Amino acid sequence: MNVTGYLESVGRDLRRALRSLPRRPAFTGAAVLTLALGLGATTAIFSVVYSVLLKPLPYPNAGELVRIRHPAAGLGGSDIGASPAMYLTYRKENRTFAEIGLWSDGGQTLTSEGETTRIRSLRASHGLLQALGVQPLRGRWFTEGEQGPAAQEPNPVILSYAFWRGRFGGDEAALGRALVVDGRPAQVVGIMPPDFRFDFMNSQPDIIVTQMFDPARASINTFGGFNALARLKPGVTPEAARADIERMLPIWRGAWPMQQGVTREAVENWRVAPVVRPLKDDLVGNIASTLWVLMGAIGAVLLVACANIANLMLVRADARRQEFAIRAALGAMPARLARELFVESLVIAALGGALGLAIAYAGIKGLVALGPGGLPRLGEIGVYPPVLLFTVAVALCSTLVFGSLAALKHAVHADAGALGATRGASAGRERARTRNTLVVVQVALALVLVVSSVLLIRTFEVLRRVDAGFADPATLQTVRTWAPNDLMRDPQAFTRVQHEALDAIAKLPGVEAAAFTSTLPMEGAPFTFDLPVAVEGRPMAGGATPPPRRMKFVSPGYFAAMGSRLVAGRDLTWADIDAGGRVALVSEGFARELATEPAAALGMRVRTPAEPDAWREVIGVVQDLKDDGLYAAAPSLVYLPVSMESAFGAPQFGIPPVAYVVRTQRAGTASLVTEIRNAVWSVNANVPVALERTMQTLYGASLARTSFALVMLGIAGTMALALGLLGIYGVIAYVVTQRSREIGIRLALGAQPREVRALFVRHGLVLAGCGAAIGLVAALGVSRLLAALLYGVAPTDPAAYGVALGVILAAAALASWLPARRAAAIDPVETLRAE
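RE: above sequence
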């Protein structure tokens, strides 16, 4: 046959398939919907995996970008970040970097046209944007001279595209425009392109400001919360860059002065060992394991769907055995019959793929909405060409391999002997064995996913019972404020404004308690920081630096407002602050490090190494706080007054940015937020008020990763269970149809309907039991991959396995009972008359 004739023949097969499939709506609908559900879920999850893990970062030659960290073994392994002195040393002495820069996450107060607002900023040194390699859409990058002590005002700033469009309407004249940022003159020198993203912060920055560095004021132990990012020279590996930094660390330690209270011996005892990781690996972090687990789970659903399609094809081929035999007897070649089945499978694949893609688009929107805020590259998730190619490939392979090849066996073995097969005869043992095997596989996969879902449900229940260190987060409204520009250099003045604003907030209707703090629980960067804390009478061996402790600055009444329990001692008072603030409270965990009983820590004195004479007496012990999320252990905390004399090298110390916590049943309402803003502005109209949220938002964020995985695994488990049970139902229903003559004879000879029902229910339970046995073994291995997501629940938790097994067997019994009931209702007289 020539090519034209072959194509015409294939065209006839296609038209035949398009005509015949609608005539069998049950078969066609079941096959297309099964494929669409499995394919849609798989494509949606693969879109997340591709966007987060596989898609290159949106920077030129992104593989050359690395993140530099400096964990210090002598400080408990904590990352000390990167200091200006390190940055200046690395820029001058390195042999492996094409560019290197520092950045920090923060906020700025923008004053424009008499309005003061708080905006999100990226503080960047020279070299950061150059390393990223993203050219501004308009204007230029910062220059090296604009970050030094000789830099002249106005300070240069670069706008994000979204901020430029939203604040300035996309006006070209915004370039060069004068602004006031943090009370100082600034000028717009650049506008970033719309696709520029900086996913290393909690949210995208509105503006980029230059980070000022004065080499004359840099020291070894002055850090400031900076992060280091570099672009490697071509051909340089991260391992080579790490070795280069190891070479430069002694140069850094010897070239810069020491800050008061810290010795070079102490710095040596930090035992800094640099870590250089590809930027994408550092950005993705440990979310990769979670996403691959979810991808495997949804892949299992696709396998279950394919097994169902194979079963449908087998049943369909059984129904067409006589047709195949007749056509074979009339001279049809097996290859001709096989091609017809392939074409039919292609039509099903096309329909299922198209519907699956629509489901995937809807699913991706849901995944982005459900995705935890900490999920990196969340905003980049979408359907990209590789995802579309994946969808097409999976649709074709799943249908052709699991569908056509199973049915092909019937076409190839079609012979005239099938013409004598009587209506209602049982299927051949081989075909029955194939169908039963597919059902067993479906049940096994479903059990693995149900076990995983139950493990996460139990984890979620355990986490919900964990005492986070504060009470009723849904009734805690929080807002964050910053000291107004005209008061920034006077801690006493802005603390007085904060106190007066607190008094105004406390008078609002429905407010039960109010206070303010430097850092909310679970708030994280950029407000959280750790410092070494020395304890009087307990010097460190060899002059080593004391281990770091989490520092929080609080106002009186803070613990009562948060619902945090005082374990021993008393709370802070305004009288303590008026007396100079020479007091502190510590967490219960820290107190137990100091003494056998928390109460024994009262009266001890603590300080940071930067303030050799500023000892502060421990007056209270507070219950532990899950400050890093419910999964993490509670850190050792030191609570200091929001205002202190002679602290951190300053005669008077205060916290310019604070968060107010307001306990009220009105938390979360727009009216309350408006009233809090007005209360603050009644004291000082220039105070920026932002980040209005309830503590429930922060608390929920600590559960977001588990919630996300739980929803995904729950959907996967439910779909796999439903498809597996449909498989059992289909097999038992088909067997009932094939054995209707035998059933009629049994009933005519006196068999009881309950015995007939038991026969088929037993058959279904045997299949489910075999699948469950295999699934239990598989689940023991797979559940260990979930260990990072579990909390307070072992991967081998007997209760989870028992619940999952009970659900599977109960559902299998129901799926078997429905067709068994129909079998028991067969009229033996009608069956025998038909024979």
